[in-house]
Each structure stands twice: as structure tokens, then as C-alpha cells.
Design a protein that fits this description.
The chain is mostly beta strands and 360 residues long. It has 2 domains: 16-224, Alpha-Beta Complex (Sulfite Oxidase, Chain A, domain 2); 244-358, Immunoglobulin-like (Sandwich). It is 8% helix and 37% strand. The radius of gyration is 21 Å and the shape is globular.
Length: 360
């Protein structure tokens, strides 16, 4: 991709490459925060290369590498294995990228690259245990069927997990979303779902699992999804989701700016909060752009891996307001008011700001 535009319009310019990406991918409209489980068509979507052609009748999953009993499984064989359904919140690692200055040139997400779905599939751990992991294994590699060029390299989309993370009980090989077969854009007929981690880890169109005796060095692992704060910084890998809270925008919007308009009086503000690092402990709300904060009421949890709803009663007075919410998880991680910059635009969990005009 070309570099950042120069001149006074740089902050507001968008490249043709970004426009093409934005036309292929989509975020979740924030009004969909009203749903505990995001309808499939509203769940965020990112496709790195192309949606590959797939037929579950001929699909095969190869399990090999550093194992004693390599095997090949059909979709029919996978479906006969014990199945579970788990609500999981999934967020793109680049969510919030377009809010950074200067803006990294890539998929220009604002805050909408998120969704919560009920994923159905079979746990990965028993399958690996049956294959017999050899001594010295350190990682598990997951290969998708989508192929393309990135960083000047032709490649399949491949990502790895440390062995202890891959063996966690919640990691799934999924074939359904919200009670229906995976649609093509979400990885039909089989995908990986790794609760708690950013979405790049949940490899779609899964065709291969390989246990490795040394760390994977493919492009999606070591050439991308690293947080670099300078040219000399070797980078820190993107892993688990940082805490974030989003507000369901109140009132009605202005078409282009999305500024909200609301009548004076008592209103219940609502939203969702999540973290891949620990359960959400608290959500606070500000109606003055972060100058002061008040606690919100948390709702029930669907699962350890899905967002939690929150609510806050606001006495709206006439004038202009900037609404914010921020989440803190049980490990003490809290959203920052301002985003720390990195050259990939990853893991920007700065508080959301919603402009609201209150008038009769």
C-alpha cells in the first residue's frame, strides 16, 4: 500500500487501497449493541485475501506435524465428535485504527469491528490429545484455504498459537454460527475460534493443523500483527483483546456526521463491554467528554468469553455533550482516554466519544 497522504488534508484523506478494503469488509452498526447475540449479517467481517471455493462434502482437515498419529478428518467425522455452543465476543485487532494520527493505511476501522456470536463446534484439545503430541512441541499452526500476497510474499493465511493456549478447553473447531452453518464469508465449512484473542487468531476455512517443534515464523505471525511504536522497535505480538466499552448511540443521527440528537429529560444509556484478559469488573460513564465519571450498572454475563451489557441513567440537559464509557477488567486493565500510537494501528482501545446535542 502507498504511504500516508501528505499535507493539511492528510488526517481526513483516504487512499484507494483503504476504500477497496472498506468495500469488502464491514463493521457492526453500533445500534446492534442492543442484541446479546449479534445477528450474522451484522457481525463484523474481515477477509484478508479471497473467499475460497469450498464444499463440505469434499473438505478435509489434516492434523499432523509433531504428533504420533497424524490423521485426516472429514466434516462428517468432525460433526460426530462431542459438540458445544459458546457465546464469544470477537474483535478485529485493527479496531480503532482510523482514530490514530497519523493514521496507519489499512482497513480503516472506527469502533465497529466487533460482534458476539454463538459458535458451535468441537473442542480442539481432545483432537490434539488423540493425535499424541510429541515431546518438545511448542506451538500449533493453523492453516486456512485463503491464499494471496502480503508483504511481497505469496502465502496461505496461517497463524500459530503457543501449545498451552491451543490446549485451552474453550478453543473450538466451529462449523455453525448462531445455530446455522457457517456462511462463506465466516469460514465455511470449518474455522478456528479462539475466545479472548483478537480475531486474526481465529483462522477461517481451516484445512490444516500442525504441531510444531519451533516457533512459526510466517508472515502473519512475524511480519504482521506486531505492535511497533518506532522503526527500531522489534515489536510485541498482538494477542488478547484489551478492555473496551461501546455505547449504543442514543437518540437519532444526522446522516453524514452521525452526531446524535436527543430530547431533554431522563434517558437510559446502554452499551457493552468486554476484555480478553479478564472478566469486566466495572464500566464508568462520562457525559462531559471524560472530565468526570460515574459508575454504570452491569448486566448478567452470557459466558466468560462474551461481552457484558451495562446501563446508566442520564438526566440530559439542553446543549452539546460528549458521551464516553470506559471499562476496567478484573486484572486492573482500564481503557485509556487517548490512544497510544503504533504503526499497524493495533489494539487501540481508547474510550469511544459520542457527540450528542440535547434539544426539544
Amino acid at each position: 500500500m502507498h504511504g500516508q497522504p501528505e499535507g493539511e488534508d492528510a488526517a481526513n484523506s483516504i487512499t484507494m487501497e483503504e476504500l477497496q478494503l472498506a468495500a469488502r469488509n464491514h463493521g457492526m452498526p453500533l445500534e446492534a449493541l442492543r442484541y446479546d447475540v449479534t445477528p450474522v449479517g451484522l457481525h463484523y467481517l474481515l477477509i484478508h485475501f479471497d473467499i475460497p471455493e469450498a464444499d463440505e462434502r469434499t473438505w478435509r482437515l489434516e492434523v499432523g506435524g509433531q504428533v504420533r498419529a497424524p490423521r485426516t478428518l472429514t466434516m462428517e467425522e468432525l460433526r460426530r465428535r462431542p459438540a458445544v455452543t459458546v457465546p464469544v465476543t470477537m474483535e478485529c485487532a485493527g479496531n480503532g485504527r482510523a482514530r490514530l494520527d497519523p493514521r496507519p493505511v489499512s482497513q480503516p476501522w472506527l469502533e465497529e469491528a466487533v460482534g458476539t456470536a454463538e459458535w458451535t463446534g468441537t473442542p480442539l484439545r481432545p483432537l490434539l490429545e488423540e493425535a499424541g503430541i510429541s515431546p518438545g512441541a511448542v506451538e500449533v499452526l493453523f492453516a486456512g484455504a485463503d491464499r494471496g500476497v502480503q508483504g511481497g510474499l505469496e502465502q496461505d493465511y496461517e497463524r500459530s498459537l503457543p501449545l498451552d493456549e491451543a490446549m485451552r478447553d474453550e478453543v473450538l473447531l466451529a462449523w455453525e454460527i448462531n445455530g446455522r452453518p457457517l456462511p462463506p464469508q465466516h469460514g465455511y465449512p470449518l474455522r478456528l475460534v479462539v475466545p479472548g484473542w483478537y480475531g486474526m487468531t481465529s483462522v477461517k476455512w481451516l484445512r490444516g493443523i500442525s504441531v510444531l517443534g519451533e516457533p512459526f515464523t510466517g508472515y502473519q505471525q512475524t511480519g504482521s500483527y506486531l505492535i511497533h511504536v518506532s522503526q527500531d522497535d522489534p515489536g510485541v505480538p498482538v494477542t488478547r483483546m484489551a478492555p473496551r466499552s461501546l455505547l449504543l448511540p442514543p437518540g437519532i443521527p444526522e446522516f453524514e456526521s452521525r452526531e446524535r440528537f436527543l430530547a431533554p429529560g431522563r434517558h437510559q444509556l446502554r452499551g457493552r463491554a468486554w476484555s480478553g484478559r479478564a472478566p469486566i469488573a466495572a464500566v464508568e460513564v462520562s457525559t462531559d467528554g471524560g472530565g468526570s465519571w460515574q459508575p454504570a450498572q452491569l448486566g448478567p454475563r452470557q459466558s466468560p468469553w462474551s461481552w457484558v451489557g451495562w446501563s446508566f441513567v442520564w438526566e440530559a440537559t439542553p446543549g452539546s455533550h460528549q458521551l464516553c464509557s470506559r471499562a476496567t477488567d478484573e486484572a486492573g486493565n482500564t481503557q485509556p482516554l487517548h490512544p497510544p500510537w503504533n504503526d499497524g494501528g493495533y489494539a487501540n482501545n481508547a474510550v469511544q466519544r459520542v457527540a450528542v446535542t440535547v434539544r426539544p
